[in-house]
Write a structure and sequence with these properties.
Layout (H helix, E strand, L loop, with lengths): L2 H4 L6 E8 L2 E9 L5 H15 L9 H4 L16 H15 L15
Antiparallel strand pairs: 1-2
């Protein structure tokens, strides 16, 4: 879906009618293209950004693969508490040889 259409824009169309002796013989509808120049430009920019995205770290490859920038990076640890609880439960199930269990998390306060 084009960005302008996603934002609620609609292509304008205009219909003209041709008559001969008072009888409609032809109607011609001309519509603007669904994809504007802006839409095409945005899509090309998105594709270029995705092509330059590292599959490992998600940073631009032009930065993460540059040997001159090796000292620019640091590892940041964060804890997702629902994932932590699910991992603990998975370890417990593995100890008891329970297989095929699908784990999901939900907030008890809802």
């Amino acid at each position: 879906m084009p960005y302008t259409e996603f934002r609620g824009g609609q292509a304008v169309s205009e219909t003209s009618y041709e008559y001969e002796d008072g009888v409609l013989v032809r109607s011609v509808t001309v519509s603007e293209p669904r994809w504007t120049d802006l839409d095409r430009g945005l899509l090309l920019a998105l594709l270029a950004e995705r092509a330059d995205k590292c599959s490992e770290c998600s940073h631009p490859m032009s930065l993460c693969r540059d040997p001159k920038r090796i000292g620019d990076w640091e590892v940041v640890q964060d804890i997702c508490h629902p994932t932590l609880i699910a991992q603990v439960k998975a370890e417990e199930l593995a100890k008891h040889k329970r297989r095929g269990v699908v784990l999901a998390t939900r907030n008890k306060r809802r």
